[in-house]
């Protein structure tokens, strides 16, 4: 307290000067119209700039939510377009209204929207973690897509989180086709560039061109037909010379992946159950166990 009193006594002239200045400014702007209007205008500019900065900060902080909503909307619009194309085909029977290989009603899908919480792209066995699990209806072997195309396959499921094997994983093996050409192969990633994968086992007699779209074939029990994968970038001969190896420019940017959708389709789940039951029956027959025993 003594130090405070000494400080005030030492600088009392300055404090008195500041007080008189404040009183003078108040009297000047309050009782003079011109000076008052100048202060009011300046104050408005300062307040406006403050609100502008605050708005920009708020927009930046809410950008993640906006991106999530855009991703959901993109997927929903894609499904609506394909459904309307199918309905138009049913009415007109004119195939020019449909992209070959994509005729499928996708509106029956239930999309489980999720956010990527962990993602790796630098290794050979990359994995993605999403913030949805069994509690949200996610199951093993469900397909995962984003607004730009396929992402991968659900590998492990916890209560609140799931692990996805993306296309950028050496163990990924997805059946794909060249749109409109009726030729299919299996998509693999060979490491290196994160925007290139390879479609193997494409028949030698297949006719297609660079730039053709590559989509899911619908021949697996994971992805339905017609989900975008990418475009044909280059064509090579396979090592044995019996088929083509097609370099595919992936449509999904895995380095910036944030929001995804897990595809829950009842028909795919039924197909997988039937395939599992058939494989189990074959195994039991191989073991000498008759069906029903």
What's the rounded overall pLDDT mean? 75
Shape: elongated
User: How many individual domains?
Assistant: 2
Stated plainly, the CATH topology of the largest domain is called Thrombin, subunit H
Approximate helicity band = 25-40%
Give the CATH superfamily of the largest domain: Rod shape-determining protein MreC, domain 2
For the termini, the CA-CA separation is 95 Å
| Helix-strand category | alpha+beta
Q: What are the low-pLDDT stretches, counting only 5+ consecutive residues below 50?
A: 40-45, 93-107
Total DSSP helices: 5
How would you summarize the topology of this molecule?
Elements: H1 2-10, H2 12-31, H3 33-61, H4 63-92, E1 110-119, E2 128-130, E3 143-146, E4 149-157, E5 162-166, E6 174-178, E7 183-188, E8 196-203, E9 213-216, E10 228-237, E11 243-250, E12 259-264, H5 266-286
Antiparallel strand pairs: 1-2, 1-12, 2-5, 3-4, 3-12, 4-5, 6-7, 6-9, 7-8, 8-11, 9-10, 10-11
Helix pairs in contact: 2-3
Structure in words:
- The protein has 293 residues and is an alpha+beta fold.
- The protein contains five helices and twelve strands.
- It is elongated.
- Residues 40-45 and 93-107 have low confidence and may be disordered.
Structure described in brief:
It contains five helices and twelve strands. It has helices at residues 2-10, 12-31, 33-61, 63-92, 266-286; strands at residues 110-119, 128-130, 143-146, 149-157, 162-166, 174-178, 183-188, 196-203, 213-216, 228-237, 243-250, 259-264. The termini are far apart.
């Amino acid at each position: 307290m003594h130090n405070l009193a000494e400080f005030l006594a030492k600088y009392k002239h300055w404090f008195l000067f500041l007080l008189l200045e404040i009183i003078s400014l108040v009297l000047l702007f309050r009782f003079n119209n011109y000076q008052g209007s100048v202060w009011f205008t300046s104050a408005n500019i300062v307040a406006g700039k403050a609100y502008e900065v605050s708005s920009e900060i708020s927009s930046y902080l809410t950008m993640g939510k906006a991106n999530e909503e855009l991703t959901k909307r993109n997927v929903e619009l894609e499904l609506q377009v394909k459904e309307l194309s199918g309905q138009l085909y049913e009415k007109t029977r004119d195939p020019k209204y449909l992209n070959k290989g994509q005729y499928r009603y996708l509106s029956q899908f239930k999309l489980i929207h999720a956010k990527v919480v962990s993602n790796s792209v630098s290794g050979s066995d990359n994995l993605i973690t999403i913030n949805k699990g069994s509690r949200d209806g996610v199951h093993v072997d469900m397909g995962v897509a984003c607004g730009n195309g396929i992402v991968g396959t659900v590998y492990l499921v916890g209560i609140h989180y799931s692990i996805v094997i993306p296309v950028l994983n050496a163990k990924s093996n997805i059946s794909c086709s060249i749109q409109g050409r009726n030729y299919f192969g299996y998509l693999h990633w060979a490491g290196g560039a994160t925007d290139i994968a390879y479609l193997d086992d494409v028949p030698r007699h297949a006719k297609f061109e660079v730039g053709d779209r590559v989509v899911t074939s619908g021949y697996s029990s994971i992805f339905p037909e017609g989900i975008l994968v990418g475009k044909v970038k280059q064509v090579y001969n396979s090592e044995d010379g019996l088929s083509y190896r097609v370099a595919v420019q992936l449509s999904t940017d895995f380095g910036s992946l944030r929001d995804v959708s897990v595809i829950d389709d009842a028909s795919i789940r039924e197909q997988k159950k039937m395939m599992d039951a058939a494989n189990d029956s074959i195994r039991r027959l191989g073991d000498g166990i008759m069906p029903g025993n």
